[in-house]
Write a structure and sequence with these properties.
about 250 residues, TIM Barrel, eight-stranded parallel β-sheet, about 15% strand, binds 1,3-dihydroxyacetonephosphate
Length: about 250
């Protein structure tokens, strides 16, 4: 049985007090969804500690949105994986399309970040996905394959057992345009095949999340697909009710 996961990527939203309120709201409503669904919130670095405090005693987990490629040292403005782990984070989102696109993250950088994440006992949520031109040219399979081969294929079998993948088509992020459940299933199944070509049967255990304009009204249909194990949620994660409502998609 693969883990079911609903993870909230808050991106660069919320001030600390707002983040704490949001986290408290998620904790308060969490009981409305079965324990079989794992909820994770990923606030900005600045309020990880305060949100960790707000989550204490609950079964809502904490993640960060990024980490440095180096362990420590003279890297002004960077945040090390060890620092994130020390604050109680269990997860780190890596390779989000916004980081690839706006901050020039390459597979080379992401390989180093992966190393840091595992060295500190964290679980990466590794994002892949094509942009609109790539989808329209029919290159989405090749793009996802390459993003996986260049990074995930460098993991050991042990590390692979502790990995979450998020498929996020760039054209669906923040656009209100969701991939259809069929499109999601098609590429999730393909991603699992690519993973299996390297890691064999262990690929059947790897959670693959869908991300891109996921909301309470479309979650159930998407999550019903065999190879979709949950969602990585942007905009709708900023309202506790919507975020939990997406988790309810598993119970529909
Ligand atoms: P939206 O849910 O706002 O489309 O964002 C998805 C996303 O990028 C999550 O990482």
């Amino acid at each position: 049985m693969r883990k079911k996961i609903v993870a909230g990527n808050w991106k660069m939203n919320t001030l600390p007090a707002e983040g704490v309120e949001l986290a408290k709201g998620v904790v308060a409503m969490r009981g409305e969804v079965c324990d079989c669904v794992n909820f994770i919130v990923c606030p900005p670095f600045t309020h990880l500690a305060q949100v960790a405090e707000a989550l204490k005693g609950s079964n809502v987990e904490l993640g960060a949105q990024n980490c440095a490629a180096e362990a420590k040292g003279a890297y002004t403005g960077e945040v090390a994986a060890s620092m994130i782990a020390a604050l109680g984070c269990k997860y780190v989102i890596l390779g989000h399309s916004e980081r690839r696109q706006y901050y020039g993250e390459t597979s080379e950088t992401l390989n180093k970040k992966m190393e840091q994440v595992y060295a500190n006992g964290l679980t990466p949520i590794y994002c892949v996905g094509e942009n609109l031109d790539e989808r329209e040219a029919g290159n989405h399979f090749a793009v996802c394959k390459q993003q996986i081969e260049e990074v995930v294929f460098n993991l050991t079998e042990e590390q692979f057992k502790n990995l979450v993948i998020a498929y996020e088509p760039v054209w669906a992020i923040g656009t209100g345009k969701t991939a259809t459940a069929e499109q999601a299933q098609e590429i999730h199944a393909y991603i699992r095949e690519v993973l299996a070509s390297k890691f064999g049967a262990a690929a059947a255990e790897c959670p693959i999340l869908y991300g891109g304009s996921c909301k309470p009204s479309n979650a159930a249909e998407i999550f019903a697909k065999e190879d979709v194990d949950g969602g990585l949620i942007g905009g709708a994660a900023l309202k506790a009710e919507d975020f939990i409502g997406i988790g309810k998609g598993f119970m529909a």
